[in-house]
Amino acid sequence: MNSATDNRQKQPLPPIDPALAHTLQRFARLDADTPTPQLDYAERRRLLSELQAGLIRSALPGISRAEHFLAAGGREICMRSYRRPGSGSGRTLVWLHGGGWMVGDLNTHDDLCEHLAQFTGHVVLSVHYRRAPESPFPAALDDVMAVLQWLGDMRGLRPFAAEQILLGGDSAGAHLALAAAVRRIQHPADAARIAGLLLLYPPLRPGQDNDSMRRFATGFGLTPDAMQRYWQALGQPEGEAAQWLTPGGNRAAIAHLPPTLLMTASHDILRDEAEDFAHEAQALGAPLQLLQAPAMVHGFARMLAASPAARQQVELACSSWAELMARQRPQSK
Questions:
Q1: CA 207, 212, 214, 218 torsion: positive or negative?
Q2: Which residues are known catalytic residues?
Q3: CA 246 and chain centroid, separation
């Protein structure tokens, strides 16, 4: 047991945010009241994620939205852009939604992406990548790389194809964002340069048995059984793609990450694996800042419309990330 793990186990935790607790109760009732015997596991989780998002949806006024479509390799990638009035940061934040690589879409993350556009001043481009189990890894990652390459090709031709491309995601989307950053470092010609990373509570290592995985196994939303299902559905790629399944293990690439803000949730089974990765990356010299959101559960960012405390934590992540990027010298191309 390392010192960071030792300290985590000794720290007393306050109860979770009451608004998040209430939201989890509402989600549980919705789950119980939605019998879907005709649907398989993936289809049911997708339906419930849409219903959950509708239950707490609260549109942010003044954010302009547009739909975009990219034809790549015989498939179509759907995207949605969000822009704050008068914003002109010259940066585009490509956002990858969470959902265990199986669940989630553009609609489930509307609230979050609107607020990201509001908090950062960047154009936010939400990407609906191919999902498991129909499209095993690295299909989702290939979609992300196609979007990043397209943004580079479209620079000057599309208003959201900005000079600087940032990349972020929540949960499974954060895993894909890190994998894309690692892949781009290894193969610079495959995509536009990524100038910064924003990672919210990413899953990084399958089969974990640590304090947070045991401590928050029930009653906090995401469970170890569900996480195991998600990893299994993602598949076991062969060849070069196998290394990107666990991108945190690419030590040579991790040392060259762009300015990265990683935020974990205090009451999340994924907390320890993400924080352990953050400490390892910092030891390698990566410009990574770690924040832990107190009284938060996994998925708090997509529930920010229902929880003022969750909204504050997302805003803190955005402002801290901006400060981190401002302190860093421009990365070489």
A1: negative
A2: 171, 268, 298
A3: 15
**What does the alpha-carbon distance between residue 31 and residue 198 come to, in Å, rounded to a whole number?**
30
- 150: enclosing H helix or E strand: helix 139-153
What are the tokens at 289? 């800042």
Q: Which two tokens stand for residue 183?
A: 């892949």
Residue 296 structure tokens: 């938060």
Q: How many CB atoms lie within 10 A of CB 282?
A: 16
- State how beta strands 75-83 and 260-267 pair: unpaired
Tell me if the pTM is above 0.90: yes
- Token pair 């919705």 in the structure block, residue: 30
User: Nearest to residue 196, comparing CAs of 105, 320, 83, 102?
Assistant: 320
pLDDT in tens, the chain (333 residues): 455 555 655 567 789 999 999 999 999 999 999 999 999 999 999 999 999 999 999 888 899 999 999 999 899 999 999 999 887 678 999 999 999 999 999 999 999 999 999 999 999 999 999 999 999 999 999 999 999 999 988 887 677 777 789 999 999 999 999 999 999 999 988 777 899 999 999 999 999 999 999 999 999 999 999 999 999 999 999 998 999 999 999 999 999 999 999 999 999 999 999 999 999 999 999 999 999 999 999 999 999 999 999 999 999 999 999 999 998 865 444
Calpha distance 66→81 (Å, rounded): 5
| Tokens read off for 237 | 């790629």
Is 109 in contact with 92 (CB distance < 8 Å)?
no
* Cβ–Cβ under 8 Å, residues 9 and 280: no
Contact indicator for 223, 216 with CB cutoff of 8 Å:
no
CB neighbour burial string for 48-86, b if at least 16 within 10 angstroms, e if fewer:
bbeebbeebeeeeeebebeebebeeeeeebebbbbbbee
The Cα–Cα gap between 170 and 109 comes to 10
- Report helix angle 110-120 to 41-56, nearest 10: 50
Which tokens in the block code for residue 22?
């209430």
Between CA 293 and CA 264 the distance in angstroms is 6
